[in-house]
């Protein structure tokens, strides 16, 4: 269960006043709405493809396998980018820590 119309998550500290915070909160709102729209559209497209195939088992099977493969590749890329970012962050902070001594 989720409440996809709730855009308050990820906005810690943005509830205080100020035009800078207001602009940032508005941009976060737009980004979150776009992610929800993409999620809904991809689900509509995927379900339409699977429903349009009717009772044909083999095409459904292959399309499902292809979709699972694409999701796996996407997840793998996200994990790889996150690891590269984490390593870069740790190395940067490690050098800053050592240079202060």
What does this structure look like?
With 101 residues, this protein is an all-alpha fold. It has a domain at 13-52. It is built from 2 helices and no strands. The chain is flat.
Give the SSE layout.
Layout: H1 19-52, H2 57-99
Name some characteristics of this structure:
101 residues; mainly alpha; 2 helices; 0% strand; flat
**What is the helix/strand order?**
HH
Task: Assign a percent range to the helix content.
Answer: over 70%
Let me know the average pLDDT: 77
Shape category: flat
Proportion of residues in extended strands: under 5%
Number of helices: 2
Find the count of extended strands (DSSP E, 2+ residues): 0
Largest sheet properties: none
User: Over all CA atoms, what is the radius of gyration?
Assistant: 21 Å
* Poorly predicted runs: none
Distance between the termini: 50 Å
Class derived from helix and strand content: mainly alpha
Summed up, what is this model?
This protein has helices at 19-52, 57-99. The protein has 101 residues and is mostly helical.
């Amino acid at each position: 269960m989720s409440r996809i119309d709730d855009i308050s998550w990820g906005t810690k500290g943005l509830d205080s006043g100020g035009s800078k915070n207001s602009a940032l909160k508005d941009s976060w709102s737009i980004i979150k709405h776009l992610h929800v729209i993409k999620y809904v559209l991809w689900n509509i497209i995927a379900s339409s493809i699977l429903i349009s195939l009717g009772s044909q088992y083999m095409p459904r099977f292959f399309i499902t396998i292809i979709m699972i493969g694409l999701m796996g590749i996407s997840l793998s890329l996200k994990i790889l980018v996150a690891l590269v970012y984490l390593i870069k962050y740790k190395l940067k902070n490690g050098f800053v820590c050592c240079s202060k001594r």
